[in-house]
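Regression test case RT-17, inverse folding.

Input:
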């Protein structure tokens, strides 16, 4: 088996993906399958941190479009990410692997506060670390959170797990002629306005020299394949 390309990564998971075939909520078989993939990746000897979106429960932009202020809507969305982290933490630990949720918000009865020292400690202790609460600030996506946390904890890459196998020039589900890229620079990704990740996340990754690997989470074992350098995805770097 090939050695992992990276030793510490942040994996960005879509909240919507946790809903499985449903429009809302947490689909337990889907959560269990993702937990299996994360545990398998961890067993490769990789230190794994995870950032999860909250779109399966609350999307801040959608809430604010219905009359709630944007800061309040985004806060609701960030709280949804904590709920997703707790669900995934429970699934991982139920399968016998250690995990720990760290939140950007002070909520001692629910989870420990994120600090760089806490994240370093739990990763070094062999735990899968789940990073909830976004950045703790409105107007920032969980994509940006993933890059920010990766830079803060010294991760070597951000793995963006999505529903397509890389970055395309357009939505391949709507445009059959969409071109798939094997590799892009951060600047090309920003200039192309590719919707797989927001421009702020790409810009921060460029500033911090962090590669982003965009790949499909649909196939079991896809995280491990990316970590071993054998997976199918788009590398955004340089």
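Golden output:
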């Amino acid at each position: 088996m090939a050695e992992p390309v990276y030793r510490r990564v942040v994996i960005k998971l879509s909240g919507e993906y946790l809903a499985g075939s449903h429009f809302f909520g947490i689909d337990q078989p889907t959560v269990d399958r993702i937990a299996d993939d994360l545990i398998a990746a961890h067993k490769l000897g990789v230190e794994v941190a995870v950032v999860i979106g909250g779109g399966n429960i609350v999307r801040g932009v959608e809430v604010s479009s219905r009359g709630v202020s944007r800061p309040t809507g985004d806060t609701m969305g960030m709280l949804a990410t904590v709920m997703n982290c707790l669900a995934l933490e429970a699934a991982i630990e139920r399968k016998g692997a250690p995990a720990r949720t760290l939140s950007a918000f002070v909520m001692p009865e629910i989870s420990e506060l994120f600090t760089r020292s806490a994240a370093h400690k739990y990763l070094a202790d062999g735990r899968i670390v789940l990073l909830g609460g976004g950045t703790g600030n409105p107007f920032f996506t969980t994509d940006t959170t993933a890059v920010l946390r990766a830079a803060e904890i010294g991760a070597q890459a951000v793995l963006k797990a999505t529903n397509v196998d890389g970055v395309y020039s357009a939505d391949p589900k709507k445009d059959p002629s969409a071109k798939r890229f094997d590799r892009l620079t951060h600047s090309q990704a920003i200039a192309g306005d590719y919707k797989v990740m927001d421009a702020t996340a790409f810009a921060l990754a460029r500033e911090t020299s962090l590669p982003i690997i965009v790949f499909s989470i649909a196939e079991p074992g896809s995280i491990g394949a990316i970590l071993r350098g054998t997976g199918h995805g788009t590398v955004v770097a340089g």
